[in-house]
Write a sequence for this structure.
């Protein structure tokens, strides 16, 4: 049942982005990288968050940049060619499938990058004030 439903989702999204209906080497390459690298980083990040590890924000920043880069590399080649594979004429497929659903993959990494920025800034200021006390 799971295989059938994922095939259906792929076919449905393929109405908005035709590259999902055939073996597009760019999409397949990015998805393999996403599953292997980003999937592994996500597991390490979960562990780092739960165990409050010092490297949590390094992993979080790395994962977010990978996700943003993957999104850019998914769409920018098609944009440069005039979007031949993207259904920009249909309101639902363009605004809901392409714009809304894919913007989630930009918004969440963007928010997590901002969170890491704020936390690293706090750590820096905390470290500089404690060093001044000892000088």
């Amino acid at each position: 049942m799971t295989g059938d439903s994922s095939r259906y989702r792929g076919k449905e999204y393929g109405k908005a982005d035709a590259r999902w209906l055939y073996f597009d080497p760019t999409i397949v390459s990015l998805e393999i990288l996403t599953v292997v690298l980003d999937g592994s980083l996500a597991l390490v990040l979960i562990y780092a968050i739960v165990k409050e590890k010092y490297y949590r924000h390094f992993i979080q920043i790395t994962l977010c940049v990978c996700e943003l880069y993957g999104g850019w590399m998914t769409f920018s080649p098609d944009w440069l060619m005039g979007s031949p594979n993207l259904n920009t004429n249909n309101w639902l497929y363009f605004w809901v499938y392409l714009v809304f659903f894919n913007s989630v993959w930009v918004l969440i990494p963007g928010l997590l990058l901002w969170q890491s920025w704020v936390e690293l800034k706090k750590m820096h200021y905390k470290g500089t004030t404690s060093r001044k006390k000892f000088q």
